Amino acid sequence: VMENSKPSLAAAAPQPGSENESEMAAAPAAGAQATSEVTAAEKSLLHGTGASGPEPPYPDAAQKVSRELLINRLNFTHFQDDCIQVHFAHRRYERSLLVPALPQPCFGEELECRWVHPADISAVLPSYDLDYILVPRGRSFIQAVPKVIAIGPEGVRLALPAASRETRLRKVERQTCRDISVHALQNATAFAGRLLDFNAFSFRVELDATPPQRFEWIDPQRPVSIVLYKGSATFFSGECTITRSTQGDATRSYVMEPLKQEVHRYQKAEFRSQRQELTPSPDLVFRHPLTGRRMDLKVADLSGSGFATEEDEHAAVLMPGLMLPEVELWFANSFKLTGSVQVVFRRVLGRKSALRVVHCGLALMDMPAQDHVKLLAMLHQSKDRNAYICNELELEALWDFLFETGFIYPEKYAWIHKKKTAIKETYEKLYTRSPQIARHFIYQDKGVIQGHVAMIRFWRNTWLIHHHAALKTALNKAGLRVLDQISRFTHDTLRFRSLHMDHLACYYRPQNKFPHRVFGGFAQYLKNPQACSIDPFAYLRIRQLPQAEGALPSGWQLSPADDGSIADLNDFYSERSGGLMLKAMDLEPDRWKADDLSQEYRRAGLHRQRHLLALSHGKRLKAFIIANVSEIGLNLSDLTTCLQVIITDPGGLEPEIFARSLHLSSQVAGLEEMVALVYPAAYPQRHGLPIDKIYNLWLVNTFVADQAYLKYLSRLTRYI
């Protein structure tokens, strides 16, 4: 039933408001009784989920609006199932309420609205008069002062004025939030609550005091640690200052401002990702985690680890520390890349088109592997038009290059020529299907390959660099350029958990001057085996070993590895080398059993398997054998299909026993013809076994050595 009510004839007087403050319950007028405190019903209306909660308008921002346009905006609001705001003023005290209402279709001069919270309105009507309504219009509102025809617990009927005014209600708009929980912590006391609204400069929360808690436990002069979250997803955490609060025993509202305008997600570094401005610049598209609204911003500059964007100050929604779990980068509306980011800084710039602009930096937290490759490929091409990452190659040109550069020399070809058909099929998968476990870097000019390096993810968090070659006429340029590419790629990738770039590995022969200078030189320069280590292996062919066939003598056994043999292996290597080999190869006590990487290979149509075996005499570990089995040609020196043998105790390990253990291990792996890499290399040398060559296994911890490696490499590449 609608009730007649005295109409409100004048618009509410504008109230002052800061761009960083939300409308809170005003203090009682002089001489007012304590009963002027805001009631629970009033709070429910003020903080209702249907309300956007703007402050009263600034009078100097007004613009005249006709009744026809007002009706059109009301009908659009109804079409969107959205709300308008109905402003009520207390008849005795200087306070007001904004009540959300649902407008009904409007076809003339009268408007009917339904309250969003009809159960609470009865407590308001006896003490408040309707002042004006606020109708959303984009980033502003239309303020109309109607006459009240009838009002009641269910709704209100209004006569619309002939003219209204459009106004921008705040210098910085405040966005209403839904279903965002708050955890506030100060002095070892935690309060729970919810987020009401926010902008990029501050936000308003409502906290609950659960007995024996009292709000007096919160010191407004000291910082409060705030966490904003929904379910298991955390969107913001940081220290904030309290700028304003309401009164109340059970609940209180607080306006908070983050203390920091910059978040140090990673340590400051001398060498950083190179930011570039692309033309056309991509668009950042995402749903804001606190409001659910779709946002579309221009990207100002871009790198492989983050980017910057700009937004108008009055509509800013990116505050430092905010996590955006799902974003899209759209490139000319042609294709998109996805990922998650965190806002790491915000800076207010000078005027641009008569409006101040906020420049925001965002750090990439994660990105699908294939999307990140596409991003880096664009950026590398933008810097150097001849630099390519994971481009689809003409394989005939690649084979021509590998033979021309001498990468495939006669002795190597004698080993692989019988397998050439299978090797070509493997390269077809690696270079034309872009599997997630393989990367290649090409430097080419006018279609001619001048430099090439590839890497394969051969252990869980370790990538094996191989196939590094360059034309002799371009060695000083192309060979270093592809190494520069791979180092910048690693720098931009190492922080992403999903890309598994914890370690880089490379086998090289110490007599080869170029890798010895680059890889060996860096290890010598760093002098820290936990950052970069080198372990020499002897390379020999099993079929050339004497007396390889036959059973092991009594007392000797070859069995699957267990926790005990892994522990003995780690103790030996820690004492012998202290390097990175066991960590990089997933042979530490807490990681050796997992083998999920083999599933990645199967998804790519490739094969990878490993068998871990312990050679023991009695209960003493003599050697640890890793039987690696992979696709033919994955590495042209068979370093990915081989036995890696770590001699932990050479005493009593005669060459015949050693040879038979390797032969039995190759049978376990299911391959008759295999090569062995033996560490320490001194064992086969001491016993006169036929060694083909020595390979150094170079390993680098990317997190520890990233900056040092970039600095070292920059000295080598400064003239290219």
Structure in words:
By secondary structure, the protein is of the alpha+beta class. It is built from 15 helices and 34 strands. Strand 26 (462-470), helix 8 (475-493) and strand 27 (503-508) form a beta-alpha-beta unit. Helix 8 (475-493) packs antiparallel against helix 15 (702-717) and helix 9 packs across helix 15 (702-717). The longest helix has 19 residues, at 475-493.
Largest sheet: 12 strands, mixed
* Percent strand: 35-45%
Q: Overall pLDDT, averaged?
A: 86
Helix share of residues? 10-25%
Q: What gross morphology would you assign?
A: elongated
Q: What Rg do the Cα atoms give?
A: 35 Å
Which residues form runs of ≥5 with pLDDT under 50? 1-38, 40-61
Number of helices: 15
- What structural category arises from helix and sheet content? alpha+beta
Number of beta-strand segments: 34
The separation of the N and C termini measures 84 Å
Biggest sheet strand order reads: 23-24-25-26-27-34-28-33-32-31-30-29
Spell out the key features of this protein.
nine-stranded antiparallel sheet; 720 residues; 15 helices; elongated; 34 strands; alpha+beta
